[in-house]
Amino acid sequence: MGKPTGFLEYVRELPAELEPLARLRNWDEFHLPMPEDKLRQQGARCMDCGTPFCHTGTLISGMASGCPINNLIPEWNDLIYRGRWKDALDRLHKTNNFPEFTGRVCPAPCEGSCVLGIHNPPVTIKNIECSIIDKGWDEGWVTPEPPEKRTGKKVAIVGSGPAGLCAAAQLNKAGHTVTVFERADRPGGLLMYGIPNMKLEKEKVVQRRLSVLEAEGITFTCNTEVGKDLPVEKLLQDFDATILCTGATKPRDLPIEGRELKGIHFAMEFLTANTKAVLDGTETPLSAAGKDVVIIGGGDTGTDCVGTSLRHGCNQLAQVEILPKPPENRAADNPWPEWPKIYRLDYGQEEAAAKFGDDPRVYLTTATKFEGDENGCVKAVHTVDVEWAKDEQGRFIPKHIPGTERVIPAQLVLLAMGFLGPEQPLLDALGLERDPRSNVKAEFGKYTTSIPGVFAAGDCRRGQSLVVWAFNEGRGAARECDMYLMGKSELP
């Protein structure tokens, strides 16, 4: 602990950002660099706790508490305070293959369980993590490190999202020949097409890391859907082991009256089309320009739809959430070190407030009907207020409140209500066992499926979750796969 009184001397500070209205003019990231002396002060706020809850990732009340990949947070906080950036990067890479991704898109459960956060604002762990890896790239410390020798074993990774990339990186490090199959035209999965460019830049951040992985010997085969373009029989025949990392991409629908109308889309369809257009330099086929937009659902995906619609130049925007507005501070039944379920103004809502005057979220509200025009296009969303009450079985359910019906104009509706699990055709083709939620049945920590030599990791195994949990599972599955192939493993 380099500065025993640091948490008393320095207040929490985050990097400055471009003003909300200014950043709506483009698709660039909008966080500004933080001076090194300020970053060192923030590192000094870490108390180097005897029991650092920040890096002991676990689930409490069904939500992540601490870092699921067990980042050595107190160690690199101290190294930053001392100005030892290269050593900090080495510590960071011990547990995290791609800190430039988590440093930008992870919600930072580590900060929610920071001991300092009990009585003061927590340490700025996420920003320090991002600053370490960004400096590493700037200084040229991140370079391809291909394995010294190959084992002769071939491994297929199906899906190039967060879990797939971590599994591929680890197995390649062990000396196996790794091929990653991706059905989209670019590798990266959720990181490439599911997260907008202003939140995670594709060319400067994602593609930069993909190029290093390719230089290390990993092969990415795009435009290839396993089970369709590549028969599963050939996959199992040509490779010594396979890891499924297909994600949980089946979206939750809203089957109410008018659902068939044109102009109603799943959020990921909208976000993917937009990012592809940004990267290709073309017009997006799903534009919010000049339209009244209604987003149904919250979370990160809903926020990304808000930010994207604003950059298109939407006419007005509303975000409908069925849950109540979170409290400003932790509730009594949400104690530390649980993830703090508090009200936050994320980047998209901040931008909407700057443009339209208020947070666009409408809480305790649900859609009851989509109204169409004479051309079969959506023109309005009918909503009603709800209250949560127990049913006959004692379960809390939303009940409509009579007299609170409203009609919201909408020529574009985006459904951002989460995901139900992995798409089933590939799993059916393989004949894999599923759990009751339709995920691939594979024990956490083992990742072995009902077919020998086939493993599963990430959202297709655990259900919709955080990028950092996908990292955890991708690394874990790689270790188990290495054990299967070699009888032992030195992978962490």
Structural class: alpha/beta
What portion of residues belong to β-strands? 15-25%
Q: What is the mean predicted local confidence, pLDDT?
A: 96
> How would you name the CATH homologous superfamily of the largest domain?
FAD/NAD(P)-binding domain
User: Which quaternary structure do these chains form?
Assistant: single chain
Q: Distance between termini?
A: 26 Å
* Helical fraction: 25-40%
What's the total count of β strands?
18
Radius of gyration: 23 Å
The number of domains is 3
Based on the model shown, name its key terms.
492 residues; alpha/beta; Fumarate Reductase Iron-sulfur Protein, Chain B, domain 2; FAD/NAD(P)-binding domain; 3 domains; five-stranded parallel beta sheet; 16% strand; globular
Describe the protein in words.
This protein is of the alpha/beta class and 492 residues long. The chain folds into three domains: 134 residues, Fumarate Reductase Iron-sulfur Protein, Chain B, domain 2, CATH 1.10.1060.10; 163 residues, FAD/NAD(P)-binding domain, CATH 3.50.50.60; 165 residues, FAD/NAD(P)-binding domain, CATH 3.50.50.60. The chain is 34% helix and 16% strand. The protein has a five-stranded parallel sheet, with helices on both faces. It has a five-stranded parallel sheet with strand order 8-16-9-10-11. Strand 9, helix 14 and strand 10 form a beta-alpha-beta unit. The longest helix is centred in the last third of the chain and has 20 residues.
